[in-house]
Amino acid sequence: MQSFEALLKEFTGKFANLTFKGHPESLYEPNNYFLSLGGKRVRPVMVLMGNDLFEQIHPDAYQVANAIELFHNFTLIHDDIMDNAPLRRGMTTVHEKYGSSTALLAGDVMFVAAYEQLAKIQPSLLPKILYLFNRTAREVCEGQQLDMDFEKMSTVTLQQYIEMITLKTSVLLAASLQMGAILGGAGEGNQKHIYEFGKNLGIAFQIQDDYLDAFGDPEKFGKQVGGDILANKKTFLLIQALSVVQGTDKKELELLLSSNPADKVQRVVELFKKSGVDQWALELKAKYYDTAMQHLEAIAVLQHRKEPLQGLANFLIQREY
């Protein structure tokens, strides 16, 4: 098994050769611009790691990894349009730079390019890969719609939020690993365990993301904390706080949600701490992380082959940025 860092370097080098060409240039240039912004590339490397867990990396794994990364970038372009976001990775978003209509079409072309990558793999492997890819793509769209629906809802339950996060974020991590496992010749039982490992790890990852937005160190986090609080975003933390705070604290929290005072972030964070939401979030993260690791442990391969995935899991849920 190779480390995440080694596979990331290998994938990044190969992926850099993927460019968009065609006429009109105004349609394809936005995608080259967006890909030039970089990214963590966690999902495509998970394809390679899922393959490497069971067998030497199959040549087709790089095509599948390309498809996963292209699909992920397609979702980001469209997410930025829906969120009216001005920046992505510290740079101007595609719709701000080229216009919303062009960004929409460029994202569509990115999605088509993902299928072009999948079409290159061996015909015997394509049906299972394509089925999982299509199911996951649909689920990600469902998760995004739920996220938008939640913005219009006055209350969202923890279970509803977990369902949304599972669809919007976790299933793509899980499917990336399972696609790699399919290419590595894994049996149905091992495929199920690696999928559940990725799904539960994805939920723990989101809990950590929500936690850092409220309690992270701005210098390590890379951006000002409290963005979710200022936007009244229904995160793990806010949903739990609304369910446990009482009396004057509840009235204060509701008042802060309906206004935007200069010290809003500080006061909401104080209420989070007072109600124990910070510790609750860490315990919930640990619960999903432990479940993920139980599924990783259940995979029937030699223990040392699992070590790179264990290391990646630890990094994702302990990161401070």
Give a short synopsis of this structure.
The protein is built from 16 helices and 2 strands. By secondary structure, it is mainly α.
Q: How big is the Rg?
A: 20 Å
Strand order of the largest sheet: 1-2
- How many domains? 2
Apparent shape: globular
Mean pLDDT over all positions:
95
CATH homologous superfamily designation of the largest domain: Farnesyl Diphosphate Synthase
Output the structural class.
mainly alpha
Terminal residue distance: 26 Å
Describe the structure.
Helix 1 (4-15) crosses helix 3. The longest helix has 28 residues, at 188-215. The model has no long low-confidence stretch (mean pLDDT 95). This protein has 321 residues and is mainly alpha-helical. It folds into two domains: 1-138, Farnesyl Diphosphate Synthase (Orthogonal Bundle), CATH 1.10.600.10; 187-321, Farnesyl Diphosphate Synthase. A hairpin with a 2-residue loop joins strand 1 and strand 2. The protein has a two-stranded antiparallel sheet with strand order 1-2. It is built from 16 helices and two strands.
